[in-house]
């Protein structure tokens, strides 16, 4: 039973108790008072009338006239004159009560007033006895009116009390609802914080749970930081912070072999010539600092630091991947500026930084791509300038010749509707957790993968339109097969678009049963604004039963402390941490730590990009809940 109902019942019971008690006391007191007054009246009037009759001649007619006059003016019920032997000589009486007082009330009250009696004398001789009884009807009416007035007052007081109680409970209920919601979040391992209510008891509860959430956040930050430090120690160059050669090559291979949008972009290779000479002239410490600054400058070429992927192939060669970057003309000036900044750090040394730029696309051969980079780098080295940049355009035919054709084709393809691919995500028992459903668009009479059109979608800011079309297609697919659970990718541009969120919720509210079968995934590259938008999206769609996940989680795992209160269902670990895990103890340690930390929050961990059975077996041994990739097949 709700708090407001309990309070209402308590008020009603209290008012009824007060009403019954007040009514009983009032009616009893009133009845006693009236009985006393009527008894005195009966005795006084009987005595006065008997005295008057004693002084008159004992003529029956005269006595009857006197009794009638007294009866008509005194509001009596009965006046009777009896002789000495008890025989009735004269009697006047009124009819029974005929007012509007209910009979049950008269029976409950039941006045018990003795009749007034007096002796009539005839000289020294007794003539007879006079009996007088007053009418009680006015007393019934008076007490009935008192009861009605008292009941009316208590009804009014009850209504006012209930209204006040409702207002008070509503004031208590709002913070109570927040406290209950926070308790439910914590039970679901979403450690949220709330504004402390003004009610003392609720404030103490809220303070305790907020402290718990803060402690969990601190624990997550510490543990994820330890994991990140371990990952950096195992996978990054200790001098510059760039990825080791093997790790970078693994990430490059996994990207090129995937259908992810990041499989399209530009790759930059920079060589620091005469590194040994630099060490001799500048010293090891200054040279290391210079190389670290080079990695920093290369990282800043990415739109955000999280998207930069910098590797150190050997002592002097550094390589940078810029996913989704396609405009070489816009990149070259920024690249030259970054290289000049490094060259100016040692102006008297004659430092040379030949650089090569090559575009890459999905399913490119890694060896051929690196050979193209080496060829371009050789061209840059042969030039005499300190910062020469050689560019190799990718040898492929674009689907469309210009921006206008691309825009028109993309709008038409989105209007026509995407096609969804199905890639199973399985658990250790080969049960399907859900299906990954990347979108395909029909462009140039063929269904193209995301890596082909996502850069252009981003360039024309069509992400919200595409994502809405994908959700509509997924709902259409679920209509024919409602038992499936589908994973849908949402872009950062979409979740930060308020109109998209409103449209998405409106779309899902029309089919709430199917909405429960959708899992929405966002990239792990989330800035502060995107995290806030994701939190709002989860709050808006969680009542519909939707699930939420983060994909391509790698270095971004340190942000888990910022995401612990969102209510994530799962994290997908990036394929760069998965490839070759069965032969790498370091990778197993990292993934095991990530899985343990996620499990403490009730978050499932799914591995991406699994290519062979040995990887799959190793992943389930270290605690991963699910896996997907080319090597995952349903039995």
UniProtKB/TrEMBL annotation:
Chain ranges of the HAMP domain: 170-221
Domain EAL: 399-635
Domain GGDEF: 263-393
InterPro entries noted in UniProt: Cyclic-di-GMP_PDE-like, EAL_dom, EAL_sf, GGDEF_dom, HAMP_dom, LapD_MoxY_N, LapD_MoxY_peri_C, Nucleotide_cyclase
SUPFAM superfamilies: EAL domain-like (SSF141868), Nucleotide cyclase (SSF55073)
Protein name, as recorded: EAL domain-containing protein
Organism encoding this protein: Halomonas qaidamensis
């Amino acid at each position: 039973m709700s708090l407001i109902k309990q309070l209402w019942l308590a008020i009603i019971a209290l008012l009824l108790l007060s009403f019954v008690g007040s009514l009983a006391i009032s009616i009893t007191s009133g009845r006693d008072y009236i009985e006393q007054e009527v008894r005195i009246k009966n005795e006084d009037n009987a005595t006065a009338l008997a005295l008057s009759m004693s002084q008159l001649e004992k003529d029956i007619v005269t006595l009857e006239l006197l009794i009638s006059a007294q009866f008509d003016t005194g509001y009596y019920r009965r006046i009777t004159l009896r002789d000495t032997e008890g025989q009735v000589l004269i009697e006047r009486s009124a009819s029974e009560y005929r007012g509007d007082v209910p009979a049950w009330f008269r029976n409950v009250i039941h006045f018990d007033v003795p009749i007034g009696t007096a002796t009539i004398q005839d000289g020294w001789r007794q003539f007879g006895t006079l009996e007088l009884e007053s009418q009680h009807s006015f007393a019934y009416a008076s007490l009935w009116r008192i009861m009605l007035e008292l009941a009316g007052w208590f009804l009014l007081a009850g209504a006012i009390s209930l209204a006040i109680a409702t207002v008070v409970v509503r004031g208590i209920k709002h913070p109570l609802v927040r406290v209950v919601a926070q308790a439910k979040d914590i039970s679901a391992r979403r450690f949220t914080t709330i504004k402390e209510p003004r009610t003392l008891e609720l404030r103490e509860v809220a303070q305790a749970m907020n402290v718990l959430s803060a402690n969990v956040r601190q624990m997550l930050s510490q543990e994820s930081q330890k994991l990140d430090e371990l990952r950096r120690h195992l996978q990054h160059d200790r001098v510059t912070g760039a990825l080791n050669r093997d790790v970078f090559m693994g990430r490059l291979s996994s990207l090129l072999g995937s259908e992810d949008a990041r499989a399209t972009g530009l790759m930059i290779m920079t060589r620091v010539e005469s590194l040994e000479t630099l060490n001799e002239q500048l010293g090891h410490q200054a040279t290391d600092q210079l190389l670290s600054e080079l990695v920093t400058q290369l990282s800043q070429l990415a739109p955000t630091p999280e998207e930069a992927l910098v590797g150190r192939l050997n002592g002097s060669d550094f390589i940078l991947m810029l996913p989704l970057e396609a405009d070489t003309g816009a990149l070259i000036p920024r690249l030259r500026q970054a290289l000049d900044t490094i060259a100016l750090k040692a102006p008297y040394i004659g430092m040379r930084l030949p650089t090569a730029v090559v575009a890459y696309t999905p399913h490119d051969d890694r060896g051929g791509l690196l050979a193209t980079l080496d060829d371009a780098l050789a061209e840059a080295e042969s030039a005499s300038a300190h910062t020469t940049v050689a560019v190799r355009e990718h040898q492929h035919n674009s689907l469309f010749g210009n921006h206008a054709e691309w825009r028109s084709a993309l709008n038409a393809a989105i209007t026509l509707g995407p096609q969804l691919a199905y890639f199973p995500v399985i658990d250790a028992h080969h049960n399907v957790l859900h299906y990954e459903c990347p979108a395909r668009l029909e462009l140039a009479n063929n269904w193209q993968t995301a890596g082909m059109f996502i850069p252009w979608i981003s360039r024309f800011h069509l992400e919200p339109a595409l994502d809405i079309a994908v959700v509509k297609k997924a709902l259409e697919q679920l209509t024919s097969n409602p038992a499936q659970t589908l994973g849908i990718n949402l872009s950062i541009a979409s979740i930060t678009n308020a109109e998209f969120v409103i449209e998405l919720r409106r779309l899902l509210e029309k089919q709430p049963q199917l909405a429960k079968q959708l899992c929405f995934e966002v990239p792990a590259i989330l800035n502060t604004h995107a995290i806030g938008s994701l939190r709002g999206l989860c709050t808006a769609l969680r009542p519909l039963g939707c699930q939420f996940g983060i994909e391509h989680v790698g270095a971004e795992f340190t942000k888990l402390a910022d995401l612990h209160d969102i209510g994530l269902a799962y994290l997908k670990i990036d394929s760069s941490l998965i490839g070759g895990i069965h032969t790498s103890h370091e990778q197993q340690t990292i993934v095991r730590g990530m899985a343990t930390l996620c499990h403490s929050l009730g978050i499932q961990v799914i591995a991406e990009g699994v290519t062979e059975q040995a990887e799959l077996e190793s992943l389930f041994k270290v605690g991963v809940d699910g896996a997907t990739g080319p090597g995952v097949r349903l039995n």
